[in-house]
Amino acid sequence: MVKIIKYGQKRRLICEICGTLLEYEECDVKTVQTGMNEYEQQIECPACGETVVVN
Ligand SMILES: [Zn+2]
After folding, report:
1. Using the 8-state DSSP alphabet, how is residue 55 labeled?
2. Using one digit for the tens of pLDDT, what is the confidence trace for 7-26?
3. What is the mean pLDDT of the chain?
4. Residue 17 lies in a domain
5. Can you give the residue range of the structural domain that contains 54?
6. Residue 7 domain-assigned (yes or no)
7. Looking at beta carbons, which pairs linking 41-50 to residues 24 or more positions away fall under 8 Å?
8. According to the model, what pLDDT value does residue 47 have?
9. How many domains does the chain contain in total?
10. For the chain, does the N or the C end have fewer beta carbons within 10 angstroms?
11. Domain assignment of residue 9, yes or no
12. Distance CA 15, CA 22 (A)
């Protein structure tokens, strides 16, 4: 059972493409399947429009 510790907590990340500091929430993250059993968490950078992988 997954528990929410802090709901709606904002997280920060620097876009690897344009270097912009981004603030995002859980609802902005898209889970994309990249392989048989591999998934990647991604957000879209509003500054450059590129997809940034969330670690
Ligand atoms: Zn960017």
Report:
1. -
2. 667 899 999 999 999 999 98
3. 90
4. no
5. 29-55
6. no
7. 43/13, 45/15, 45/17, 45/18, 45/20, 46/22, 47/15, 47/18, 47/20, 47/22, 48/15, 48/17, 48/18, 48/20, 50/15, 50/17, 50/18
8. 97
9. 1
10. N
11. no
12. 7
- CA 42 to ligand 1 centroid distance, Å: 12
Rounded to the nearest angstrom, the distance between the alpha carbon of 50 and the centre of ligand 1 is: 6
In a domain, 2, yes or no: no
Query: Hey, what are 32's tokens?
Result: 């994309």
Tell me the C-alpha distance between 45 and 29, whole Å.
11
- Report CA(18)–ligand 1 centroid distance (Å): 4
Cα distance between residue 40 and residue 26, in whole Å:
14
Residue 52, both tokens: 């940034």
